[in-house]
Design a protein that fits this description.
The strands form two sheets. Strands 1-2-3 form a three-stranded antiparallel sheet, with no helix packed on it. Strands 4-5 form a two-stranded antiparallel sheet. The longest helix has 23 residues. The chain has three helices and five strands; from the N terminus they run E-E-E-H-E-E-H-H. The protein is an alpha+beta fold and about 130 residues long.
Length: about 130
């Protein structure tokens, strides 16, 4: 999947893919999340997609379920550890707790981080309009 990244003004940098636009911005006048915040959010939301799918396949209610993501940075601000805590209401069947964890661990974002891609950054002249 190709993405187009453009610069709509100020400190905004947007990503366009499929039929979506993901806006990002930087402080001090942020009108959108920072790119790193979106990156971190993709981890928890990806795990959430798998938890939601698990529950839907078994007709389990998702009311009251949430994932709390705790990001632990090192002294340089790089993330060293990420905790994902799946919180369930007291009515959620205990027999599925471990399966919820296994479902969340299937997250494609998490698996990509565990086996990072190779990056290649180049410059290319655009064709005149």
């Amino acid at each position: 999947m190709d993405m187009i990244i453009d610069f709509p003004g100020g400190s905004r940098v947007d990503a366009h893919f499929s039929d979506h636009t993901v806006p990002t911005d930087q402080p001090p006048a942020s009108s959108a999340p920072m790119p790193f915040e979106i990156f971190l959010a993709s981890i928890g939301t990806c795990a959430g997609i798998y938890v939601l799918g698990f529950c839907r396949q078994r007709n389990l209610p998702t009311d009251g379920i949430r994932i709390v993501q705790r990001n632990h940075p090192n002294m340089q601000g790089m993330i060293e550890k990420i905790d994902l805590e799946i919180q369930v209401p007291p009515t959620f069947p205990a027999q599925y707790y471990d399966a919820l964890v296994r479902s969340a661990e299937l997250c494609k974002v998490k698996k990509t981080l565990e086996h990072p891609p190779v990056f290649e950054v180049t410059t290319k002249l655009t064709e005149p309009a």
